[in-house]
Amino acid sequence: MDLPTVAAGVGVGIVLLAALAVWWRRRTAERRASKRAHDAAQERDPPVEIGETYEFGVTDFSDHHSGERVAVGKVEGFVLFTEDVPDDLAEGDVIRAKVTSFNSGRTSADAIYRERA
């Protein structure tokens, strides 16, 4: 190989290493920011109250420990697990549900389906 070809290869390698370093720093910073947000959310009071009804979009479904299908959604970033949902309910549907209890640590809550919004 001639010197210009070797120099070009080294240059490309340096550019790739620099790009990797920038990506790694950004990824690390994003993880730290996410961890700080998570910790802050763990310390805040829940934005919902037991006995109150809230409107939110269904983001996912989960199986309850009893085997029942449960709708998952969020109110101000706070997760609600909603029981007694209709079989035809789909992700993206907006529902109203009444909060019945908090989980240990008050980081999420259980709710009962009331109606579609």
TrEMBL record:
Keywords: Membrane, Transmembrane, Transmembrane helix. PROSITE patterns: TRAM. The chain crosses the membrane at residues 6-24. The keyword Cell division does not apply. The keyword Transmembrane applies. Gene3D superfamilies: Nucleic acid-binding proteins (2.40.50.140). Residues 47-113 form the TRAM domain. This is TRAM domain-containing protein. It comes from Halarchaeum grantii.
